[in-house]
Amino acid sequence: MASNASEIKGSSIHLIAQMTALPGKEETILKHLKNVQDNALSDNEPGCNRYDVLRYGDSFAVIENYSTTKDVDIHMASEQFQAFAKELEGLAVPGTFILKFFGDA
């Protein structure tokens, strides 16, 4: 596991993001994640191979896969991701946002 995409060596980069919504913010998080997902799986991000949004109650996880570190950078610079990142502090329980990077085994 790595703390950023540039540490991953191999044929692709896998990300797992997790967070817990503040009370009443679940649908706002879901809306943001679906917007990010729609963009990630479009022609705007051809290097995004997977973007799954998972939910159980107030807990969310996102499983992502990218071809290169440049593709991760493109994703994180997208308008949709930036809009979510800007609001995340007011949406998630403090300390529950976790982002992990993995390479192929």
UniProtKB/TrEMBL annotation:
Protein name listed in UniProt: ABM domain-containing protein
Organism: Calocera viscosa (strain TUFC12733)
Domain ABM: 13-86
Alphabetical list of Gene3D superfamilies matching this protein: 3.30.70.100
Coiled coil spans: none
